[in-house]
Amino acid sequence: MTESKPEIRSGLDGVYFMESAICKVDGANGRLYYYGYPIDELAAESNFEEVSYLLMNGRLPNLSELSSFRERMRAARAIPGEVIDVITELSERSTPMHILSTAVDMIGSLKREGPDRKSTYIEIISELSSVVAAIGSISATGRYTRPEDSLGHIENFLYMLKGERPNKESVEIMERMFILHAEHSSNASTFSAIVTASTLSDIYSSTVSAINTLKGPLHGGADEMALRMLNDMRGKDIARYVDNTIALGGRIMGFGHRVYKSYDPRATIIKGILESVQPKASAEVRELTKTVLSLEAVMRDKVSSKGIWPNVDLFTGPVYRYLDILPELFTPIFAASRAPGWCSHIQEYWKSNKLLRPTVFYTGEVGKRYVPIEKRQGE
Ligand code: CMC
């Protein structure tokens, strides 16, 4: 008897696999909430450490809770010397995302953590920023800048990345960028982290799965690709560029989303940041801004009726260029800022863990007989 074909949801589109209280992505109305708090309020009022606390504990901290959380993050900033050596060794031969994955795996292997230890989450959130800063600094200058205890998380991140104290404006912008990227429900990298965690592997291995999933251009890798596409469009007829790209089956990077069928609220905020820095921006950033705004207008005319709108990755690149950050570091920075989201979901999933193991509908044959190789007819 043949099995009847079940409903198959390509890309797991619209498939629910658990309940979660962490993040609400309201795709129809373009709204986003972390534990009920609207993203625009968090981006305007909060800071990355506080948002990390919120994501790990489900509520905002009081002053003393925040202070001890910050202390624990600060204590975890330093990267083991062996890991710095590996970053240095790979920096001329590999890509920042590959190096990040290797370095995080190495930190995990040196610590040999078991599946769940609460402080490990805080360590990972802190360490990822340090590793990304070290990768950026070592590839640019060959030097590793040690963390500075007197600085807050974001200020220290920029200090380790650039080797000098950042100005107030850079810290404020980066703080908001980290908050905006900190969490986004069951996106591909978070799901990947949960799949690994569901086998009762450890937190570092789950984070490495997430990093490697984030890297792809359909997910976190889109921020770098969008910037490269904007550079490629410069001086060209943008409407024609879009038509040609789509006609060839390509994607316009920084647009479209599985859940948002309206303007991504994070893109609205990042666009606001970009517009606000224009008076002080370099010619490069002003040119990128002109291009990205023209592209946005062209895409609005051509594809917004299909629910394709700017996503978080469209304006991120020009803002990071304003901070003088190289494109190959955009996705690693996305990873560093997403660490609390990944950790929060791993922790939530482990509260009632079940091995994640979906099913495929088999369409092949059964009952074939094995033929020894010398008796097989060539195809
Ligand atoms: N450019 C051109 N066409 C697009 C785009 C785009 N950016 N996004 C979707 N479409 C079209 C697609 O061609 C398809 O058209 P048709 O129905 O005629 O075949 C339709 O829209 C549906 O696309 P899909 O790929 O089936 O939908 P999805 O929900 O799987 O896509 C997406 C989501 C993010 C993969 C897609 O929008 C995309 O490839 N965007 C470009 C890459 C990008 O910016 N990614 C970052 C996503 S947000 C941040 C993050 O997750 O990290």
3D architecture notes:
56% of the residues lie in helices and 3% in strands. It is an all-alpha fold and 379 residues long. It has 2 domains: 19-216 and 331-352, Citrate Synthase, domain 1 (Orthogonal Bundle); 222-322, Orthogonal Bundle (Cytochrome p450-Terp, domain 2), CATH 1.10.230.10. A 3-stranded antiparallel sheet has the order 1-2-3. A hairpin with a 4-residue loop joins strand 1 (23-26) and strand 2 (31-34). Helix 2 (48-57) runs parallel beside helix 16. The longest helix is centred in the middle third of the chain and has 24 residues, at 118-141. The two termini are 31 Å apart. The mean pLDDT is 96. The structure holds carboxymethyl coenzyme *A. Carboxymethyl coenzyme *A binds at residues 11, 187, 218-220, 222, 246, 251-258, 306, 308, 311-313.
Average pLDDT level? 96
The helix-and-strand class reads: mainly alpha
Rounded to an integer in angstroms, the radius of gyration calculated over CA atoms is: 22 Å
Strand residue content? under 5%
The kinds of small molecule bound in this structure are: carboxymethyl coenzyme *A
Helix content: 55-70%
Find the CATH superfamily of the largest domain. Citrate Synthase, domain 1
The CATH C-level class name of the largest domain: Mainly Alpha
What is the string of helix and strand elements? Answer: EEEHHHHHHHHHHHHHHHH
* Uncertain segments: none
Here the CATH topology of the largest domain equals Citrate Synthase, domain 1
Give the overall shape. Answer: globular
Give the second-level CATH assignment, the architecture of the largest domain: Orthogonal Bundle
Distance N terminus to C terminus?
A: 31 Å
What is the number of helical segments per DSSP (H or I, 4+ residues)? Answer: 16
Biggest sheet details = 3 strands, antiparallel
Q: How many domains in all?
A: 2
Q: Order of strands across the widest beta sheet?
A: 1-2-3
